[in-house]
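Subject: for your reference before the review

Hello V.,

The reviewers asked for a structural picture of the protein, and I figured it would be easier to keep everything in one thread rather than splitting it across files. Below is the amino acid sequence we used in the manuscript, unchanged from the supplementary table.
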Amino acid sequence: MNSSDAYVVFGKIPNSVRGAATAHGLTDRECLFSAKADLTLDGSVRETWLIVTATSAIAIGSEFQVPAPEPGAEAVVRGGGVTGPFPLKDVDRFRVFHTVGSAFLQFRIGGLYVDVVCFSNSLVDVFDRVRAQLERLHQGRELQPEALTKPRELICPTCGLPLPGRKAQCPKCQGGHGAFFRALRLMIPYRAFLALLLVAMLMRVALSLLPPYLTKILVNNVIIAKTHVEWLKWIVLALVGAAAGQMVLNVFIGLANAKVGNRITRDLRDMLQDKLVGLGVDYYDQNPTGALVSRVLWDVDYFGSFVDQVAQGFLMNVMTVIGIGVVLFTENWQLALWVMLPIPLVLIGTPIFWKYVYPRYFPVWDSQSKASQLLSGILSGIRLVKSFGQENRERKRFQGSSAYMQQARVGLAYSFAVFNPVMGFIFGLGGLIIWLVGGMMVVKAELDMGTLMLFFGYVAMFYGPISSLTSFSNWLTGFVAAGHRVFELLDSTTTLQEDPHPVRMPELGGAIEFRNVTFGYDPHHPVLKNVSFKVNPGQFLGVVGKSGCGKTTIVNLICRFYDVQEGEVLIDDVDVRKIAREDLHNHVGLVLQEPFLFRAAVRDNIAYGQPDAVPRQVIEAAKAANAHDFIARMPGAYDRKLGERGAGLSGGERQRVTLARALIREPKILILDEATSSVDTESEQEIQTALALLRKGRTSVVVAHRLSTLKNADYILVVDDGAIVESGSHEELMQLKKLYYKLVRIQTELTRLELD
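And here is what came back from the structure prediction:
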């Protein structure tokens, strides 16, 4: 049972409020659903149930016992209070009102908001869904039970902890093994190369075990016994050969690690970039760009060292430790046991260190991400910062972010500063033990000097790999934290799923139709409510309304940046969800209010949607957008390199370049989302002159604040609070003398005042 199910009951009045509900004439038959809140209206912690029928809603507090006033008397059972009932037809609006630590479900009745139920912030999501269903019932539409009971996207259904993103994997439930083993699967394409690397490492380990054994022979048979003197040069040559062999193998292993590691890093960055480009616009509405850049540029670096750390930092060290252990126990098992004495301390200390340090990586990543996001915002808006003289304020903001990063990094560094010296001391005990125990054995003639030297040689090699294994655990801690973030991005799903059998539309007529469309960026807060309209091929449609009423949302749905929750958006009588995405984008040209140009040549910006366009096509598109003349006058003309976001061009010039970019593909549907709202009157006239020619043979959808641009529209939609309240031509709407007439009169008065 998920968290929503525990607080919503369908077709049943809870037993704790049944008595009070019955007194108000409510039975299970009338009850559509009951939703449980955890606070009373005065803030007391007590269960309250909102009972909803098809026509009304009532809040009833659960019954509770009042202690007996004197010993022996019975406790008194009382109700928790009743709010309502409220006939839904009398409610103007439903809302969830947030306060500190809690929230209220409120009904607006007669222009005033009434508190109905109070609940803690943990239930805001539940009552947001309740509010949405109350709105549906108020509109005479059917209840959606699944909308009340579906799992919460930001809460882990297993452990109940918040997720790092919508539908992201839970770091707690996944643990560290998931990221590590998924990284191993990235190595599958390089398995042949890795097998060769494994053979090289085995040879490297074998050669590293040879020098101490040769040293034993040299000490016992040549130096001390002074026999077999002729062996001296051969043993020395063998030591040189072993060292040279290790050098060659180390070079090969290092080159192999570098090649495979960087190849994996490149592949993973390509995968992340491909994923980011494929995700819907809604994903970027919920995730800051700075955090995403941090994952692609910084977190992926951990994967670059994965092969090196796993191969040389783990496998080679494990093989070395095993090989040395076998030799030591073969030579003298009693002394070998003494050598192993510090090992349990390492085995105990490393998991404790992992548990203590692993959580400290998350503040480090969070601080890096926030600093990147803050700096990106400051640099992107540097003109605004300087125009308002807020340099000192931004310095302080970044200093605060930098201090947070410093604090996080210091906490992590302190952990290593304590752990590494402690481990070094423990490893140093091994050498001291050999001097004590081994020296006594040599004095007692229980051990020869050559074997003692062999132990010293191997112990130096033995504790080195073990120390490296503890360092590997340090790296692994950071890798798992980074891996979670990388794989979380790779596992992100877009809400815009391509139809498995899309309808190919190489040619398009240009008809647009909305059928009973309801949509909200948050599904519980619809922006468009049951909107329907139709545009015939070649028509000029204007969309007007107050800010925030849903005009741009109509554009987003036509372009299929989002999918509707209810209803259909059709082009040429085909649902846009079924049209092949490539065909849809080829036939729809979009010009936004804020023109965005890349740091590239003017020619490349115009040809962005059609990279194979020849110069003639670029020039024709520029002429069609009334941009050719000012481009030709610039130094370099079409080869002129633009700065960030089109720096070097005026607002009107940038807008005409973006218009040319939309036109070079010769779209059948041209959409302008307030494309002239931020330019001067002369630039607007230039753009309008271009549009007057371009609209011929195309379906045009123009969202405009300046209503003068829509006088020649075939059809105008007036949107207010997510609904179409008026529609018709300019003359028809002016005759109605309603909202459109009011907006025109206001703009006319403002224009007259400006002229005066």
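For the response letter, the relevant points are probably these. Residues 14 and 34 are 8 Å apart (CA to CA). Residues 5-149 form a domain with the PH-domain like fold (CATH 2.30.29).

Happy to draft the paragraph if you're swamped.

O.
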